[in-house]
Amino acid sequence: MGPLQIKEILQTTPENQSVVVKGWVRTKRESKNAIFIALNDGSTIHNIQAVAEPGQFSAELLLTVTTGSCLKITGQLIASQGAGQTVEVKITDIEVYGTADPEEYPLQPKKHSLEFLREIAHLRPRTNTFSAILRIRHALAFAVHQYFNEKSFFYLHTPVITASDAEGAGEMFRVTTLDLNNLPRTEEGAINFKEDFFGREANLTVSGQLEGELGAMALSKIYTFGPTFRAENSNTTRHLAEFWMIEPEMAFFELEDNMDLAEDFVKSVISYALINCKDDLNFLQNRLTEEEKNKPQNERSLPLLEKLSFVVDNPFERLTYTEAIEILLKSKPQKEGKFQFPVGWGIDLSSEHERYLVEKHFKKPVILTNYPREIKSFYMKLDEDGKTVRAMDVLFPGIGEIIGGSQREESYEKLLGRVKEIGIDPENLWWYLDTRKFGTAPHSGFGLGFERLVQFVTGMGNIRDVIPFPRYPKSAEF
Ligand code: ATP
Ligand code: MN
């Protein structure tokens, strides 16, 4: 089906057989004795080298073979004379599918900044860096589905449009078909959402969890893997307005089980990438090493592959929020007044605190549990002391929070109390509360931000570079 891809051709034993190679020109080099064309079709980080003799093709044709042009090359597969590849193509024919005027084509064979490439996101998948990231992203997504399938989880498709304003109020994108220039009004003068498409206010989801819980209360183990949206105006290297979230939800799992699953799950998908994305990871590792060359030795990070293996091979540190606060209070930066934000029981840890714990104190991933109820969501199960909840955040070096989860409150009365306490109208959540009324059960789940995982695995510093077409404040061009 379809022509052979470069990845396959590169693994073929050369026997002078005829081959057809299709791809985009990365570079063309002319020497006295030969013309070398490096072709890439995105199936692998490696290019295939095609060689022609000088004078074999007209100058006119060769002028159209430039970086970015798309070619069909016919020739023979032979053992390569040059270093760096085992096979090459001895060209007999070139068909130019599409030219790319060098005066206009923005990707030239030189180093482009990631910022510049973000401005040409429609073309950046043609670079080594971005094609490597996209292949790794694919492999991780595949590993996610494989992991859950093997563990008897069912993939549940939760809605993208929601009418519940229970979560993330104020951070949501509105979905409407109302004419913004001519809004229907109620007698009191408010916008009349009864006339809107759904007959009520609707938004893009910030999480599939609440519906995920409904699934878990019937199928026992489910997961969602879909797009989520947050209108938070945070211009950080770790936030997108549109990102993909993986949310498993399990009946009969307590917090311990939830932590075990989260740890096993991330380790498993990272090791899948280590086994299946070697070439791309090696490329990205070299890229990072190159980038850090000018840094002093003690500021350089572990080589990418070592960092990933370290996470896979070592148990995550588990401790309570309260214990973490004690560590922070006794820490050097705290004593020297180096933290920007104050430390004390009850604070929402900021990223400098999380990074201290992960990168300086424990030097490995950390799972923090039992946070104060005030700083966590209403659906988390209250601890016996009534002060903390059965929450768990998984913190990663360089990333901070990669997973947020909890055991859920299964008691109808306690959950209703919490709903009212934070000012949500229970009417809006009647269907969610019903799960606690009819056959409630202990259950747990978590949310993993897929792009933060891809960021960790690829070592990319900015989350905008690990999704094909990022959405962030003032940017939705492509
Ligand atoms: P943070 O505190 O880092 O903003 P959060 O506590 O708001 O995250 P949760 O609501 O717990 O995040 O979402 C679960 C997971 O989704 C997070 O652990 C993170 O991996 C990811 N995530 C959250 N917000 C974003 C975002 N804006 N862009 C990308 N990933 C995100
Ligand atoms: Mn969180």
Automatic annotation (TrEMBL):
Superkingdom of source: Bacteria
Recorded catalytic activity of this chain's protein: tRNA(Asn) + L-asparagine + ATP = L-asparaginyl-tRNA(Asn) + AMP + diphosphate + H(+)
EC number: 6.1.1.22
Assigned keywords, A-Z: Aminoacyl-tRNA synthetase, ATP-binding, Cytoplasm, Ligase, Nucleotide-binding, Protein biosynthesis
Gene3D superfamilies: Bira Bifunctional Protein, Domain 2 (3.30.930.10), Nucleic acid-binding proteins (2.40.50.140)
InterPro entries, sorted: Aa-tRNA-synt_II, aa-tRNA-synth_II, aa-tRNA-synth_II/BPL/LPL, Asn-tRNA-ligase, Asp/Asn-tRNA-synth_IIb, NA-bd_OB-fold, NA-bd_OB_tRNA
Class of the enzyme per the UniProt entry, highest EC level: ligase
Cited SUPFAM superfamilies: Class II aaRS and biotin synthetases, Nucleic acid-binding proteins
Any GO MF annotation of the entry: ligase activity
One Pfam family in the UniProt entry: tRNA_anti-codon
Subcellular location: Cytoplasm
Aminoacyl-transfer RNA synthetases class-II family profile domain mapped to chain residues: 134-468
Family: Belongs to the class-II aminoacyl-tRNA synthetase family.
Oligomer status and interactors: Homodimer.
NCBIfam families reported for this sequence: asnS, PRK03932.1
PANTHER family in UniProt: ASPARAGINE--TRNA LIGASE, MITOCHONDRIAL-RELATED, ASPARTYL/LYSYL-TRNA SYNTHETASE
The protein's name: Asparagine--tRNA ligase
Record organism: Dyadobacter endophyticus
Designated gene of the protein: asnS
